[in-house]
Every structure is written in structure tokens, then in C-alpha cells.
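Sequence in, structure out.
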Amino acid sequence: MDNNLAAFFSLDLFVDPNAVSQILSLNEKTEQFGLALTHADATALMQTRTEALNANGRVEVGSVTIDKIINAFCDSQYINQRDYTAILHELIEIFYDTKCETLDMISDDELIAFMKDSFEHNCMGSLDLLYGRDLNKLAENLRFGRKNYQNIAPEQDELDQDEIDAQKEDDIDEQ
């Protein structure tokens, strides 16, 4: 079978139509920010979700996470209609990767709120910085049991001795 035809069938036949409709219903809110998804966009987002879940060995029922991501990010100053779907695809992948990296030690809502805040303020709309820097640091903080795990730039006195030694070595290497 033609690869394009196979891709079409894999998207349309195995995606819950109710989930697609739920995603499309969010257009009422997002249109006020100049953003809207088509049926094909919503179906593709569900496929991205399925692939991200499979890649991370996760199971989830419904499209609640996609809905939450759309609701959180639709008012971003860094998202326009041209990039909207592509950014949503990446945010979905980033979300599920980060859930695994954080060992599920953070709720979905808290993670999405952190992602949005970092995307807007620390990363200035850069998904690379969001995933490669801020979310990696968040995951590290959670895995090391740091109390203020959302502080991605800890003060010197919050660092453990190994981190202080590593910083000193980095400073020496830079000189």
C-alpha cells in the first residue's frame, strides 16, 4: 500500500473521534488568539500523542492532556497560527518525555503550568531551551529530591557538594 495512504488510514481509523471533537471544540477559545485547528490537525495531534505514549511506555485514556496543553499555551505571545500545530506536536512529545524523566513525581497540571511559565519567561518561546535546559533541570531537581524543585537556577547554598565541585571544575576549565 502507498505510504501516504497507509499514513492516512492509520490516523483516521485508530483515533477516537470523540477525542478529536473535544480538541476541535477548543477552537472556540483559541480563535480569540488567532489560533484554530482543523480536523486533520486534531487527528494528527492524537497520533502524536499515541506515538509519544508508545515511545515512553505509557497508557492514557482520552485527550485530556492535549486539551490542557492547548488551553495553557493558546494565549502565548510566541505562538501564531503558522506555527501552532507544529508547536503543539512538540509540546505533546516534550510533555510525555518529561513525565518519564521526572518519574511521575509531578502532576500533569503542575508540569504543564511549569512548561508554560518557562516557555513564556525563561525560554522566550524556544522549545529547545524549554526541553533541553529548563525541563531537564526540573527533572534533575525532582530525582535528587530537592525541596524547591521548580527552582531551575539554585543558589550556591542549595547545591550539594558534588554540584559545587563540578561547578568549580567547569570554572577552572573555562579559564
